[in-house]
Every structure is written in structure tokens, then in C-alpha cells.
Amino acid sequence: MPASLHLKCEQLQPIGAFKVRGAFTAIARLAPVARGRGVVTSSSGNHGQAVAWVARRFGIRSVVVMPESAPAVKVGGVRRYGGEVVFAGATRSPEQQARAERFATDEGLAFIPPFDHPDVIAGQGTTGLEILDQLPLVRTVLVPVGGGGLLSGITTAITALRPGVDIIGVEPEGAPKLAAALAAGKPATLPATASLADGLLTRAIGQLPWSLIAGKVRRAVGVSEEEIAVAVKTLFDRQGLRVEPSGAVTVAALLSGKVRAEGPIVAVLTGGNVDQDLFERLVTG
Predict the structure, then answer these.
(1) Whole-angstrom Cα distance, residue 79 to residue 74?
(2) Structurally, what CATH architecture does the domain formed by 5-16+117-284 represent?
(3) pLDDT tens column, 179-188
């Protein structure tokens, strides 16, 4: 890895992922009466855990609609933080979204989107503010890309204060939604996505995130399954860090040589919630 590389370790957040930033900001900004009725979200895992964790601290109900294929470690996390888990459809499927919206309508719960919401994006953007505070001379920032909430938040924060910083989105080759959006000039829905990076399987960049990154993020880098696996193992072997595949894609881009950037470089590690069996296979393989 480059000598000038710095790791932004969001896997050390209370729920093991950056998502707590956006969930807390969005729930805290709800009107007290609306917040008191409880919240609901649609999530493949980390956002759901974040919503449940924040809801418990406000003493309110939380419901998380998760895909049937959600990793057991993330399902268990939602329940451990007091969230009610409901399974519906595949990751980011219309069925999953519709079920969450029905809960919001039928039971009066406030819907907290995983990425396509201004308060969620504002919360994620605090990551960018911290990067600039801790490393003012940063020149390149690599960010994992799912629905674009983190990328748009970091982009908004950093370009407002340091417009010369190069921000690069990194995604699995099996889920190139940012690359598709950049090629089309607008969010484009992929027919399907697949990767061991389960947190990055969104089929399209959100409309609001896209409006914030368009013209500011010009590069999407895709990494292979093998490159992601190598990054997870390298982070554990060299740094003793437990990082989930979705969180390790930025390091995968650097280790593979697909990104050769000027330093100082920051690679955002977004989470560390990975099933034990999968993690052991990756780090011993």
C-alpha cells in the first residue's frame, strides 16, 4: 500500500459502520411527535443496525425490512439493538421498499431512507469534515459506493472546503452503478448486482446523491471479488483490522493498482460487520 495512505476506520463506530452518522442525524431532526411514533427503514444490514441503535437511544420503536439474503451477523445486530426485523424480497428490491413504505403508512412510522435523503446525506458528510480536520493536506479520497449517500456527503463537505481534492468512487465489478451513472449522465438501474460486498449491491445511485456528485466525482473504479478478498486479508494481516468486504473495496483499488493517486491518500473503510465463517475463509485463504 502507498506510504502516504491513511485509513478512515468507520468500522470502529458504535454499530461497526459509518451508517450511524446518517441515521442519528435523520432521526434527531424529526419532529418530536413524529419521532415518538417510531421509525422504519429498508436495509441490507448496516443502515438497519444504525437505525435500531439510534432508536433505542431515543426510546422509540424501530422496524427494519431486510432482504431474505441478509447476512446473519447484520440481522443479529438489528435485533441486538432492539429493532424488529421483517424479511421481504431481495436486496434493494421493490418488494423490500414497498413493505417498508406500508409500515410507514399503516403504522404511522417515520421512514428513514438508507441514502436518498438530505438529513442522511448530511450525517454521512461529517466523515468528510473529519477527514479535512485530521488531514488538511489530503489530495485523494477513495469512497465505497452503494446508493451514493456516503459518497455524496463526503463530496459535498470536501468540495465546499477543498475543491481541489480528487474524490474517487469504488464499487464491485458486479455492481457498477456509479460507472453506469457516469456513462449515462444520470442514475441508471442495473438489471442485477452480485458481490460478496453485500452492502454495495444497490442497483442504482439515488437521485439526490447523484445531484450532489454529478460533475464533482468523475471516476468510478470497479474491483473484482478476488481483489476484495485480498484487501480484507491484507487489512487483517498488516493492520489487525476486521473489515467487511464492502468496507475494504477502497484498499482493493489501491492494492490492485487500479488507483495510482497522489498523496496524502485517504481510503474510507466503511464497516466491519462480516459473518465469522466468511471472514475466516477470507483471512486464511
Answers:
(1) 9
(2) 3-Layer(aba) Sandwich (3.40)
(3) 999 999 999 9
